[in-house]
Amino acid sequence: MSNWVKSGIPIQLHSQCVIASFQLDLQKDLLKLFQQELLDEIVKHNHIKGIIFDLSGLDIIDLMDFEHLRSIISMIKLTGYDTVISGLRPTVVSSLIMMDANIDNLLSSISLDEAVVILDTKK
Questions:
Q1: Rounded to an integer, what distance in angstroms lies between the CA atom of residue 121 and that of residue 34?
Q2: Would the N or C end of the chain have less CB density within 10 A of its end CB?
Q3: pLDDT tens digit string along 52-88?
Q4: Rounded Cα distance, 64 and 114, in Å
Q5: How far, in Å, CA of 38 to CA of 51, rounded?
Q6: Domains of the chain by range and CATH?
């Protein structure tokens, strides 16, 4: 019998969107586990509008973790779905800009409700 290690990032289906709620400090190994869990969810629920990353639970995101999130978003794009980043705190946004993070072509929203609306307009 295999033991599966879970990332600890809750993934749920709401309003035909897969929502991942980030509440833990991001780490490389955690993000790799999450990436596989998310792909499994996308395959399971193939009639979705898109994916929402709820980052409202994070106080800080370093540049490497942000770039890893971007690579996950690019991977999702290859499956044919859009991803909306939701709930970034102003201090996090400010620090990402100061670190010259690549924010080009990212969909973002203040709230989960707004993220759902964005995905509604994309499909």
A1: 27
A2: N
A3: 999 999 998 999 999 999 999 999 999 999 999 999 9
A4: 27
A5: 9
A6: 11-122 (3.30.750.24)
